[in-house]
UniProtKB/TrEMBL annotation:
Pfam families in the record: Swi5
Homology family: Belongs to the SWI5/SAE3 family.
Protein name per the record: Swi5-like zinc finger protein
Gene Ontology CC: one annotated term: Swi5-Sfr1 complex
Source species: Coemansia spiralis
Keywords, sorted A to Z: DNA damage, DNA repair
GO process terms (BP): double-strand break repair via homologous recombination
Length: 118
């Protein structure tokens, strides 16, 4: 991570030098605001570069290509959607069953040994 911080610092330093040079001749009231925005942009670019390197290092460590990682993520998201759909259907069934039996949903969960937190 020290290399990432060093890269970020160098990027911000370069952007700061260019910014300082450009602002020397700027007398407009927005000068300070532009300077802050330029500094923020330089910091964000450094952060993006560091995160990209960290991502690439993790992918290399896992022996995955970027496409494989995306596919794995997409599959995981699809499974989460299916899980949530099934869970919603189960909760609706417990609600209807509770209504038919004149009980609370919590009572139905307890009756079927299902944790209300699940």
């Amino acid at each position: 991570m020290d290399g990432d911080n060093e890269t970020r610092a160098k990027t911000a330093e370069k952007a700061g030098a260019v910014l300082d040079e450009a602002l020397v001749f700027d007398d407009s009231p927005e000068k300070e605001q532009r300077a802050e925005l330029a500094a923020t942009i330089a910091t964000l670019k450094g952060d993006l570069e560091a995160q990209t390197k960290a991502r690439d290092a993790l992918l290399a460590k896992c022996s995955l290509t970027m496409e494989q990682a995306r596919q794995l993520t997409d599959e995981h998201i699809d499974r989460l959607h299916r899980y949530n759909d099934i869970k919603d259907a189960g909760q609706m069934l417990f609600g209807k069953l509770a209504e038919l039996k004149g009980k609370t949903v919590k009572d139905i969960y307890n009756e079927y040994s299902v944790n209300i937190e699940d």
